[in-house]
Design brief:
A 7-stranded mixed β-sheet has the order 10-13-14-9-8-15-16, with helices on both faces. Strands 5-4-3-6-7-18 form a 6-stranded mixed β-sheet, sandwiched between helices. By secondary structure, it is α/β, with parallel strands linked by helices. The chain is globular and about 85 Å long. The protein has 15 helices and 20 strands. About 45% of the residues are buried. α3 packs antiparallel against α6, α5 crosses α14 and α9 packs across α10.
């Protein structure tokens, strides 16, 4: 639905909410059917989505399929397999003095859900929360990023042809469209993007008392202690950092390396980059591009704030930035404060692990934290230090593709989580049906109260209340 007209968008929301009011909550079978329709779209239009992702991001086909399409297919399969169990009512009975209470708990959909997705993984970040929303029984409006136009237009075309707008619809448009939508009375808003925009979304939603799930970014630390160096470890880190030209919210943002292996690590990073992308990275078919001009300029500015150890070349016309390693950053530089979100890796040496943590230069509430180590004490200290919902030992990125792992942030990296069962819970709320059968009328619970009433309550509170 490529229409920025406010009345049309308002009418869309009203039709969804009216349909929700007049229809029964979708059964598990209906929800599964919708999810399988999404799966069919992904399979039948696989080649077109891969081409759209290449057009938007220069995304290699392998990365496009692996980290956009395959993870969505896996998520749909997992959710369909477990949805009936998740949605099953939970019943319990409790005997009290004078009555028996019967409690039925079930998950209830919020209603009409708005999803605003980011440009860095424009297919996955639009549909992954939609899978959770559908699993929860909601109707859904998706606003994909205007900075990935080819993917957004393909999403609009394929989804709007298959689904009724009362169930699932894609709305394309710019920031004005997004602002209108976030100011509308949706029943839940799910946003993926920057901290700055996330704050604005939360403020706009607050006027409607609309609950919000925010998936933001952060400076994900990656630490290699003196026991953690290996060629395989460096390959993992380099791959995770420069995947999608560094435009991944859970990429290792900054690398902290013990001084005893600092030079060795730098040398191995350079060697690995040459192996991955060749000596002329711009000619590699396996390396992507920066999404837009504004972000390109921001990432280039980061390069200028340190000494370039490897790379540093860029081409504005092609939105190409070479995989770059920088050292000796200037104190107070923005590269040490802000999420980089691009193919620039700062490498910082440290002398003592405990001291590194105590200096608090590592963002504790980043989206995730990585450590490469064989030292169980260091690993335990790192896990305790990090407030992130996930920490990963001797591996990067992979946890985010696992439907068994809830994906989300805390503090500056957002709040709320999804994927798998966590997504089903995030897009539904606990609804309780309560019924009491009285076998004895207890007069003492009614006024006027006496000291005797109080003594009885204190003595028998577990059976009375």
């Amino acid at each position: 639905m490529a229409d920025n007209d406010g009345s049309s968008l308002k009418g869309l929301l009203e039709r969804q909410r009216e349909d929700l009011r007049t229809s029964a909550i979708p059964s598990v079978d209906i929800r599964k059917k919708k999810l399988l329709q999404l799966k069919t779209i992904l399979i039948e239009h696989e080649a077109a989505f891969i081409q759209a992702l290449y057009s938007d991001m220069g995304r290699p086909a392998f990365e496009a399929f692996s980290f956009e399409i395959a993870v969505l297919l896996n998520e749909i399969d997992y959710v369909c397999k477990h949805l009936e169990k998740w949605a099953r009512p939970v019943r319990s009975r409790h005997i009290k003095f004078g009555y028996v209470e019967a409690i039925q708990k079930m998950r209830n959909p919020y209603g009409s859900v708005l999803i605003i997705s980011s440009w860095n993984y424009p297919l996955q970040l639009a549909l992954m929360p939609a899978i959770s929303a559908i699993a929860g029984g909601n109707s859904c409006v998706i606003k994909p990023s205007e900075h990935a136009p080819a993917t957004s237009e393909l999403l609009e075309k394929t989804i709007n042809q298959v689904f009724s707008p009362k169930q699932l619809v894609v709305v394309t448009g710019d920031a004005h469209t997004a602002k209108f939508l976030t100011s509308s009375p949706f029943d839940l808003i799910f946003f993926t993007g920057s901290q700055q925009t996330g704050k604005a979304v939360a403020q706009q939603a607050a006027h409607q008392l609309t609950p919000v799930i925010l998936e933001l970014g952060g400076k994900n630390p990656c630490v290699i202690d003196e026991t953690g160096f290996s060629k395989a470890a460096i390959q993992e880190i380099v791959w995770g950092k420069f995947l999608n030209a560094g435009q991944t919210c859970i990429a290792p943002d900054t690398l902290f390396v013990h001084e005893s292996i600092y030079e060795q690590t730098l040398s191995e990073i350079s060697s690995t980059l040459s192996t991955f992308y060749g000596d002329q990275t711009e000619d590699s078919n396996d390396y992507g591009r920066i999404c837009n001009d504004a972000h390109f300029q921001k990432v280039v500015h980061f390069i200028e704030q340190g000494d370039v150890w490897h790379g540093g070349a860029y081409d504005e016309d092609d939105l190409f930035i070479e995989p770059t390693v920088v050292t000796d950053m200037r104190q107070g530089s923005s590269i040490l404060q802000e999420e980089i979100f691009g193919p620039v890796l700062p490498v910082i040496p440290y002398t003592d692990f405990t001291t590194l943590l105590s200096k608090q230069i590592i963002q504790r509430d980043a989206l995730t934290g990585y450590i490469f180590s064989k030292n169980k004490h260091h690993i335990r200290l790192f896990k305790q230090y990090m407030q992130s919902p996930t920490t990963s030992v001797n591996q990067v990125i992979h946890h985010a593709a696992n439907p068994h792992v809830a994906f989300g942030g805390v503090g500056r990296s957002g709040y709320g989580s999804y994927h798998g069962k966590a997504g089903f819970l995030a897009f539904s709320y606990d609804k309780t049906n309560y019924k009491a059968h009285h076998y004895l009328h207890v007069q003492d619970k009614f006024p006027p109260y006496t000291d005797r009433n109080m003594n009885i309550v204190k003595k028998f509170r577990k059976w009375l209340l």
